[in-house]
Amino acid sequence: MRPSLHPISADVTTHKPARRLHIQTWGCQMNVYDSARMADALAPLGYTPHPTPEGADLVILNTCHIREKATEKVFAELGRLKRLKDARAKAGERMLIAVAGCVAQAEGAELLRRAPFVDIVLGPQTTHRLPTLVARAEAGERALLDTEFPPEDKFDHLPEEAAPQGFTAFLTVQEGCDRFCSFCVVPYTRGAEFSRPVAAVLAEARRLVAQGAREITLLGQNVNAYHGEAPDGSEWGLARLIRELADRIPGLARLRYTTSHPVDMDEALITAHRDVPILMPFLHLPVQSGSDRVLKAMNRRHTREDYLRLVDRLRAARPDLALSSDFIVGHPGETEEDFAATLDLVQRVGFASAFSFKYSPRPGTPAADRPDQVDEATKERRLAELQALLRDQQARFNASFLGRTIEVLFLEPGRHPGQLVGRSPWLQPVHAQAPATLAGDLRPVTITAIHPNSLAGRLAEPALDAA
Ligand code: SAH
Ligand code: SF4
Ligand code: F3S
Predict the structure, then answer these.
(1) Which domains, from first to last, does the chain contain?
(2) CA 247 to CA 279: how far, in whole Å?
(3) Which ligand places an atom closest to the C-alpha of 223?
């Protein structure tokens, strides 16, 4: 804020009426990041975060279109908000509703037809225009729509001042996707692939660390396709960016990146896993299917053998690397034999965790139009079988930590008095009795118990187990 000799009068001239902002976020981490940036962008208009839609002056739904269920949830929530908005109107108050994110992008004007009480619809690439749209809606304009893929870069227009994210932070470095997997809406909702310049990423990482972040996760729909412009005009890949962040940002203790495509996992990035100690030994590397036939139909552009070889190379570079993945069962044309190949791949790799989904036809994507859709009951059965196997692998992975001493980044108080919850290098939540002053610190913890979704341990001094 500008210093002033007359703080009170300065306050009067810059004062904006207090308004309450509630943002509800679905979907991937990039939406979480975008929601935080939207809140930052609206702060100068006087909007402060509010925990519920009840009592909020502006509600933003930051939406996900990836599967049918995700989209349905948005319309269910809109029904609830309409009732709230009507009740507020009866009381002589106004509540604005904005729909942002991938459903907004995909549905566009159709969304305003289906839900005419929505004031603003804006796509993921126009979040920087939100303050203008909100100001116009406040002035009484209705049904504002902005779902362009504008030529300007939203990141250049979002404010630098940001509310702190805490000890762990997200940083979007890449957006959009050019891969066009047969089943996926992302290339349509997020648009063409785009990498932020190196200098912008470094500046944001410095700000995040200055605000207390110890761990940063670099985000992108296809993050390992990153190819940002470097200060000398050359182009850097993700590996080079990671090395720069590790070397140039003192105080940054941990780095991660997500989500990666196997085809874009180059030698430089594999080597970075060997050479960069702050790069965490956990990698989300979606494979989707273990069948070559299905991988081809999905337009994934790699075989199961390519994936297995890639995993071997990664583990050779970083022996303690754990993997997670996404799977889709019941892609059109998937046979029992194809599904068995997926189970076999899972057995061979051994995943620390995974997300798995029934194929959900998305309008406008090539797979949705195929005649050989798999019936719902088959999808259900395959999903249950795959999930049982993945759950088992996750349990075994977690159980392998019993008695080991690992480094934990402490984050916040736990449920019990005197307890802190932290995060392991492998993204497991870990709780231990520890003084509150250790929040934000990395400490060795000896694991003493394994719970279904977390590990428990006690502070250890002084040595860590060798990896
Ligand atoms: N950019 C990421 C994934 C984005 S979507 C990547 O390339 O891996 C996250 C996951 O949702 C995908 O990995 C896929 O497993 C799943 N998914 C995407 N479209 C889907 C669909 N139509 N039906 C079911 N699952 C889908
Ligand atoms: Fe979707 Fe495929 Fe792009 Fe991932 S790589 S965002 S699954 S099109
Ligand atoms: Fe969903 Fe859009 Fe992310 S469709 S997964 S919010 S890119």
Answers:
(1) 10-146 (3.40.50.12160), 164-280 (3.30.750.210), 405-459 (2.40.50.140)
(2) 12
(3) 1
DSSP state, 368?
G
For the chain, how many residues are written? 467
Tell me which amino acid residue 94 is: R
Q: Is the CB of 185 under 6 A from ligand 3?
A: yes
Kindly calculate the radius of gyration of the chain based on its CA atoms and give it in whole angstroms.
Answer: 23
**Ligand closest in space to the Cα of 67:** 1
- Quickly count: other Cβ atoms within 10 Å of residue 18's Cβ: 9
Spatial distance between the Cα atoms of 13 and 388, rounded to a whole number of angstroms = 61
- Could you tell me the mean pLDDT of each successive run of 10 residues in the chain, 467 residues long? 36 66 97 96 96 97 96 94 96 97 95 96 94 96 92 85 92 96 97 96 96 97 97 97 98 98 98 98 98 98 98 98 98 98 98 98 97 98 98 98 98 95 98 96 98 95 57
Ligand nearest to the CA of 220: 1
Question: Does residue 180 line the site of ligand 2, with CB under 6 A?
Answer: yes
Q: How far apart are CA 432 and CA 420, in angstroms?
A: 6
Two structure tokens written together for 354: 């995974």
Q: Work out the angle between the directed axes of helices 130-138 and 29-42 (0-180°, nearest 10).
A: 50
d(CA 248, CA 417): 38
Separation of CA 411 and ligand 3 centre (Å) = 27
Specify the residue with its C-alpha closest to ligand 3, atom 7: 186
Q: Is the CB of 169 under 6 A from ligand 2?
A: no
Comparing C-alpha atoms, which of 316, 324, 378, 330 is closest to residue 346? 324
What per-residue confidence (pLDDT) applies to 462?
63
Nearby residues of 114 by Cβ (< 8 Å), 6 or more positions away: 75, 107
Give the closest residue to 226 by CA, choosing from 283, 171, 308, 159.
Answer: 171
What would the two tokens of residue 374 be?
A: 């798999």
Atom 3 of ligand 3, residue of closest alpha carbon: 28
Beta-bridge partner residues of 219: 172, 258
Cα of 132 from ligand 2 centre, angstroms: 31
Q: Which atom of ligand 3 is nearest to the CA of 66?
A: 4
The three-point CA angle 153-154-157 to 5° equals: 100
Kindly state the tokens that stand for 198: 């190196």
DSSP-derived 3-state class of residue 49: strand
- Ligand approaching nearest to the C-alpha of 287: 1
Q: Whose CA is nearest to atom 2 of ligand 2?
A: 181
3-state per-residue secondary structure call for 258-288: ECCCHHHCCHHHHHHHHHCCCECCEEECCCE
Residue 96: per-residue pLDDT:
98
Ligand 2 atom with minimal separation from the 190 CA = 6
